[in-house]
Amino acid sequence: MKPFSKFAFLCTAAALAALAGCQQAPSPAPEGTTSEVPGPDARLGIAVSDGRLVLPIVAGRPAAAYFSVRNDGAANATLAGVHVAGAAKAEMHKTEGGTMSPVDSVEIAPGTTIEFAPGGYHVMAFELSDSLKPGSTTELTFTFSDGDKVSMPVRIERMGDGMHDHGGSGMEGMGH
To answer: What domains, with CATH codes, occur in the chain?
Structure first.
């Protein structure tokens, strides 16, 4: 091989090796860690954590998603929607005085955390896929009013299975 050809070959091989390294999947987080994801598409200062999807005891009923959203940014953030992978539809709801009602958006002031938890804000997930099984994970994608998005994996539980249920399902007031 000529010296220039050898050099071109080595450069090409090095570039291919570098690209192959980029294709490796990131190693998963250790079991039991809290998932806090600022995400590449998210507004600077927004973090989501402590996510879980609680499946209903009765098949065909909606699931409930719980999580925390923290705004460490300098401006208000408005959560406009949450998508649940494996659900045909998801709605943000709030339970007040024993009555649950849908909400279009949730304002998150700078320096605050909004908890989506049983008995308060939560996300209802409807028409669930059979692929959503307790002990596995799915993904929540949060959309903000300015179009920014952030996603995070969440563990899937069955209602009443874990200590995380805090005595309520978040579905009080559903009237079903």
So the answer is: 35-162 (2.60.40.1890)
